[in-house]
Amino acid sequence: MSVALQVGIVVAYLLVALAIGLLAYRVAESTAEDYYLASRSLGTLVLLFTTFATLLSAFTFFGGPNLAYQAGPEWLIVMGVLDGVLFAVLWYVIGYKQWLIGRRNGYLTLGEMLGDRFGSPGLRALVAGVSLMWLFPYVMLQQMGAGEALVGLSGGAVPYWAGAALITAFMVLYVVLAGMRGVAWTDTVQGLFMLSIVWIAVVWVLSAVGGLGAATGSMLEARPEFGSFGGGLYTPGFIVSTAITIGFGVTMFPQINQRFFVAESGAVLKRSFTLWPVLVLLLFLPAFMLGAWAVGMPVEVPEGANVLPVVLNEYTPLWFAALVIAGAMAAMMSSSDSMLLSGSSYFTRDVYRPFVNPDASARREAWLARVGVGAFATLAFFASLLRPGTLIEVGDTAFSGFALLALPVICALYWDRTTRDGMVVGVVVPQVAYLALVFVPALPRSYAGWDYALALMVVSALLTVGVSLLTDPTDGSDASRFAVVDSGEGGEGVADDVTGGDAIDD
Amino acid sequence: MSRVRRDLLWIPTFAVLVAFAVPWPLWGVDVVVAGLPVWIWWHVGWLALCSVLFHRFAASGAWERGMGVTPDDGGSP
Lengths: 506, 77
What we know:
The complex is a heterodimer. Chain A has one domain: Sodium/glucose cotransporter. Chain A contains 18 helices and two strands. Chain A has helices at about 1-25, 30-35, 45-55, 60-70, 75-105, 110-115, 120-155, 160-210, 210-220, 235-250, 255, 265-295, 305-315, 320-355, 360-385, 390-415, 420-440, 450-470, and strands at about 445, 450. Chain A has a two-stranded antiparallel sheet with strand order 1-2. Chain B is elongated and about 50 Å long. Chain B has one domain. Chain B has a two-stranded antiparallel sheet with strand order 1-2. At the A-B interface, helix 5, helix 9 and helix 12 of A face helix 1, helix 2, strand 2, helix 3 and helix 4 of B.
């Protein structure tokens, strides 16, 4: 009975999400710009939450509390600095710049933007190909997480493959029907839902165990080292390299990067940027502290199980625990549907159209995008049945793979002298080296907590700059494509027009 | 100091905001304040400070000047 109730709550939640998507579909136009970018019309609340919900996946919602439970609450600091601060700064440095450029030239994808700037369809396809390659394990990660969540919730009554298949079917159906507008709408609902429910959970659990002081007190009795900052897993090398590789990697995720093109105005980007650190803190603080406090609670966390559902089952009613799992599933679904949507646009616009069928009609492209989503998700589903590693391992590998794209892209955005050859070498060499680190088991991945991916990021920047200096710009390249204002208007002297506020030093 | 020169101060400011979101000075400290380890409070306060300074950055016009656009061009709705 209780299992039926819990599974019923989860399925009802997924149906509500689908209903919102269908509603969005009814107001959507059938153009590529609307399907992928909601006609560049997202306002602050929707943009903020659609980005927020996309960042949250099985990696954050299950992996985070689990790590805090095993190794200590310092995970809050690692995720806070990378998501709350570093990502916000990159949101300006990469995101706002891309928005300005994208608005002038009508770009929909990162590869399209770079290919146009350097006059190179090959570079365009290369960036799309590398992105799709790392997207694959990350989509898989969500299916693994969803499958495991339903097994845990139903006590094994729903098998792993059925859970993963259910979520795959929902994701595909959803993306195919609704496009970016639908994804953005449900992300907003899901983001608000998760934020509220996790705070309710904290209040509920804390009042049951006797308050904040008591929860921390019993945590320190069980694991005294949790109270002091650093130690164990959390070496300076681990903290710095995890924060940098994930922080930069996130900006190159297709579903995040594409959101840099969708804001309706610069003001929307500004407001989102300002609210970002607080929003991140509001979610991570309760979620990760629940994981850390659990070490002092009289709960038994079975091998391989997630901490959060165990704590909730102990201290809150069954229906509430099911709601939280529904929230986690929602996070995975919004991550996955955004990824699939962006991945399909990378494929159709950057690979299919330039290389296979330049004359494809808009209708054919839209049709192909939907078929592509189905195929990609199905392949990821079969791969997820093999379960090649833990959630954290699979996620971390994908983040670092994306991070290796970030510095060449920043170089292209800000340095006019960057050449096509510099970009190609700066992207290809670190990717090949990193693939070797991932797939050759004999090679180490880190040294004293320092991830080798960090060194490869430095290599990617050095190669991009070095090779650009040694080569000449190719004929088709045009640095003015990345200007943010039309030539002649100029950017100088604008400071005098500004009336609001003051700079930092007064 | 000109406005554009003052804008450059945002670069070291952002660097410090990123670097000290990790409570390095409290490395190894295990004092508990108001129910949580003190270094968690540092982090909470620091992220709130980030939000406040990010707001000043965005509202001061440095947001647009940093990219070479006018506030009308890249800022207003």
